[in-house]
Amino acid sequence: MKHRIALTIGPASFRIGAAWRAPVARLAALYHDYPAPPGGIADFTVRLDPVRPWRRYIRPSIHITGDHGLADAAPMALAHGLLAAEMGMNLQMALGWRRHLLLHAACVEKDGRALLMTGESGSGKSTLAAMLGERGWRFMGDEFALLDPATGAVHAFPRLISLKNSAIAAMEAQVADAARFGPLLRGTAKGDIRHLRPRADAIARMDRPATPALLLFPRYGQPVDIRPVDPGECFMRLTQASTNYTALGEAGFDCLSRFVQTIPAQAIDFPDGNSALALVDDLWNALR
Amino acid sequence: MSAALLVAALRDPASVAGLSGAQWNALIAAARAERLIGTLAFRLEGVAVPPAVRPILADARFDAAREAQTALWEADRAAAALAPLAIPVILLKGTAYAAAGLLAAPLSPALGRFIGDLDILVPRDALDAVEAALLDAGWEWVKPDPYDDAYYRQWMHELPPLIHRDRDRMIDVHHTILPLTARPKPDIAAMIAASIALPGGLRILSLEHRVCHAAAHLLADGDLAGGLRNLWDIHCLCSASGAAQEDFTLSLMEEAARHDLAAPVARALRLAHHLYGTPVKAYSAPISLDLRLRPSDRLFLTRLLARDGWGRETHKALRQLFYVRSHLLRMPPPMLARHLLTKWRKGHRPG
Q1: PROSITE patterns per the record (chain A) (predicted)?
Q2: Which residues of B touch A42 (CB under 8 A)?
Q3: Which of A80, A116, B74, B318 is the one with CA 20 to 30 A from A56?
Q4: Average pLDDT over chain A, rounded to whole?
Q5: Chain B interface includes A13 (CB < 8 A)
């Protein structure tokens, strides 16, 4: 394809081709510090094609596809090209990755131990991981946590952080370096979105796994509350939060069983970012 | 050109030595797009490949093994549901290859093969009983449109597809191997009579009839989507140990003629011989089988290889032509006109 870029994020590598220059230029700027795939060979191909040949020029509209695609993928505006590329990479991981058990979770690490946060879009896990990533934790990802079925370790997938709506202003106030932000994408299917590049240390250390230590089910916009979640409920919720649990078969079952039986889990409700940070601090310190 | 890379790698695994990174990307994208990545992964087992390629192929082998396991379990469930009817139940296509116990044989079509739906063949006079037994065992209709449903029942070679409500797997129940509206009229009773029993009660078609069915499916029915995969099946079937015997091609062509399928089978052999080097012998007597390509074969080859280095479909106009051809094969023109008009009114647009 005419416009292309290849990059490595954690253990996975992608080549992304687009019919337009702009999305690839955005990727090149924001993924500047990410290494190229080893030997130039990528695990996945992502394509940003016009939905119809003429829609390359007239009212440009992106069809996200690649090695793996969805028949009913919604077309995206060219102005949201960066988001389309991110969704394209997520799609390949969700449908094609087999080397780890994929959990739809945000993840941060401190002292080699990992805190995982899982929940629906809007639960606050992305924002919380971004905030922790600016406060002495290593950001490991806000979309997928990768569990190694052989070792139980969690591997990083530190894509750009996808900040939504009110989280955008919150993080703009905390991150001084404007070059780490992508363009403000208004009016996407999930409202306003702005991408944030993780700190340099998160990228430099992205191939280092961590040992899972705590699992949280955050819920934003509620009065403060903490509730332990038993292993059975964890298991059920995580099978639903995993896109490849079924595809991994027995290995997935063993990996997830071991995870829920060894990692303590809490559901936390919070009305704002600061109370969430305080809750995380308390629960983390109580682990030792 | 990436589909050509894929054909070369399948035909001669050693040919991947010295591929550049860009060529590997193209080969992998084409193999995934043609759903031949599992097949490629098994073909390249034991061949030296770059470190970044190894896990990609290992993943594909893992997926293929799981798919075969799932397909065989689905066949087992269908067998259990249909056992009380005491009729022959014949597995077709991917599941048949897996069930034939050839998973470990070299150059088996089952090795790494993508398996989508469960396809079975039953005698036509048992269709109503089969349908009732499957509905009873948890399969459900997925074609809510009354026109589609009626079309299947009146003109097709299979029931409208059913999906199992718990396992979410689709079953296609065939009563013959080509739509009733197609010109060739295979003698399906003879094929059922010649089918082979597997341990466990299910059956598969004879080797000759498996090739006939694959060729009919590829060249006398569809629009050549997935053509490289279907042709690889034919290549493997014709290269299998049973087919190595001297007179296999003769008996294959004899069966093809008997079932009105001499032309598609001969073309399939020419294309497979040309692309994959399938070991078939040319004959002039007692039958004539000329393996030299005909001018029209060039169109088929171009269509089969219409895939670029990003896995994208190329030759759009030719693809459209084969799409139209698939409909002409299925229906006489007046019927096709009526069908297209009905579909158009319902908002269906091709491609």
Answers
A1: SIGMA54_INTERACT_1
A2: 25
A3: B318
A4: 96
A5: yes
